[in-house]
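Comment thread on ticket #2218

A.B. wrote:
> Attaching the input chain for the structure job we discussed in standup.
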Amino acid sequence: MIGYYFGHASMVVRLVLIGAALSMIAVGWVTDLIGLSVAAALFLWQRRMVTPATLTHGRAD
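C.D. wrote:
> Ran it. Output below, let me know if you need it in another format.
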């Protein structure tokens, strides 16, 4: 589905994920580490913010 990353992804989350993905394209372990850590941080943030209760009431940004 478009617009989801373990829950609804706002425009800010989408832009950050695009930046993380583009950083992982560049050669080097530092850029890969940056991209993976950004993705992991967003995952943990969404796990904390987006709960089943908030999803039943509509979109959780």
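A.B. wrote:
> Thanks. Noting for the ticket: The first helix runs from residue 11 to 25.
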